[in-house]
């Protein structure tokens, strides 16, 4: 099978490329290298089935050609990271909205099954105990940067869903809940690599807000195999599916855990959201996934706890070596969904 991976030089995209190549597929990456990096793909440079195209997902002709040659498309290219979205609102909107439309339209035109990566941001401020795929979205004003990103990703899902439903071309929407692991950069805001880098450097750990806000971090090594399994599962077609972890923690708790695991003497500091992200920024206080749909569809069960996830990031930072070990469940299920 030939897969096109948009955003394949990014954090999740590059792990997906590793996984697809290991499964014996051919992979073509398209990435504009805005936030992704060739270093994430260095290990694939010599693979005969691998190729890289530096380009823009808004480029109609390029996308049409690449998609026409593919058997599957994984669309992960997006403007991501809170700092990036706040600093480049128009470019982010165009990429996240028109870029996705361009990919999906090409996939449907050439009848190529496609996956569109979405995000738990689409739930907005809904802090329910275990967000299910059909739960409500609770947004603030779309003129606030955070919600403009959430609104664009919500529309991406709709574009993917409606095209899939009308054309009959298989489509899966994956909603990632704070997926973390080696290669993720903290440059654009993601909290875990930021805290790890700060703790390793002995610098202050920068908690934003009170630190009472809670998140549940999922391992990229759990999430990536689930993506390819979903694309092989007709019951998953034309659905949005949550993917994430199990272990919930406050951001202050995360700071403490990182400091302890690294044995760092970094102090923990507190910064107002406005100072961290600019005027009008709103955070969500809690976000916790219900991944039981993925469980029923593909036997998804996160296997890596937070300490193992943090440990794999620390090891990678310290040694450049990625520890992917740990049981990965591959149980398929035919249970009714
Ligand atoms: N955060 C923080 N310090 C940082 C970066 C982020 O306290 O240096 C907070 C951020 O305000 C949010 C949480 O950590 O409450 C998760 O942030 P991230 O951007 O990783 O993910 P998201 O907000 O999209 O869940």
Automatic annotation (TrEMBL):
Domain NAD-dependent epimerase/dehydratase: 4-244
Pfam families, alphabetized: Epimerase (PF01370)
Cofactor requirement: NAD(+)
InterPro entries, alphabetized: Epimerase_deHydtase, NAD(P)-bd_dom_sf, UXS-like
GO BP annotation list: D-xylose metabolic process
GO cellular component terms, A-Z: cytoplasm
Keywords: Decarboxylase, Lyase, NAD
Example GO molecular function: UDP-glucuronate decarboxylase activity
Domain of life of the native organism: Bacteria
UniProt protein name: UDP-glucose 4-epimerase
């Amino acid at each position: 099978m030939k897969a096109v991976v948009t955003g394949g030089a990014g954090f999740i995209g590059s792990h997906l490329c590793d996984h697809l190549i290991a499964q014996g597929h051919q992979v073509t990456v398209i990435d504009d290298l805005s936030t992704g990096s060739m270093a994430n793909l260095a290990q694939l440079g010599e693979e005969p089935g691998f190729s890289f195209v530096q380009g823009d997902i808004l480029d109609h002709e390029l996308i049409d050609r690449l998609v026409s040659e593919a058997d599957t498309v994984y669309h992960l290219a997006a403007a991501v990271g809170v700092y990036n979205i706040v600093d480049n609102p128009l470019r982010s909107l165009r990429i996240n909205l028109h870029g996705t439309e361009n990919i999906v339209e090409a996939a449907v035109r050439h009848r190529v099954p496609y996956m569109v990566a979405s995000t738990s941001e689409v739930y907005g401020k809904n802090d329910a105990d275990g967000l299910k795929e059909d739960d409500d979205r609770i947004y603030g004003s779309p003129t606030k940067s955070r919600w403009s990103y959430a609104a664009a990703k919500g529309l991406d899902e709709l574009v993917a869903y409606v095209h899939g439903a009308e054309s009959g071309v298989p489509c899966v929407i994956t909603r990632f809940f704070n997926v973390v692991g080696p290669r993720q950069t903290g440059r654009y805001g993601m909290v875990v690599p930021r805290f790890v880098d700060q703790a390793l450097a002995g610098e202050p750990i920068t908690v934003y807000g009170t630190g009472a806000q809670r998140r549940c971090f999922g391992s990229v090594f759990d999430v990536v195999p689930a993506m390819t399994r979903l694309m092989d599962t007709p019951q998953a077609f034309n659905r949005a599916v949550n993917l994430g972890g199990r272990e919930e923690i406050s951001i202050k708790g995360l700071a403490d855990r990182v400091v302890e695991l690294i044995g760092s003497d970094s102090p923990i500091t507190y910064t107002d959201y406005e100072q961290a992200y600019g005027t009008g920024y709103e955070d969500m206080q809690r976000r916790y996934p219900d991944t039981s749909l993925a469980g029923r569809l593909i036997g998804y069960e996160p296997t890596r706890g937070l300490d193992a996830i943090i440990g794999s990031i620390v090891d990678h930072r310290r040694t450049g070596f990625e520890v992917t070990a740990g049981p990965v469940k591959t149980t398929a299920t035919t249970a009714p969904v």
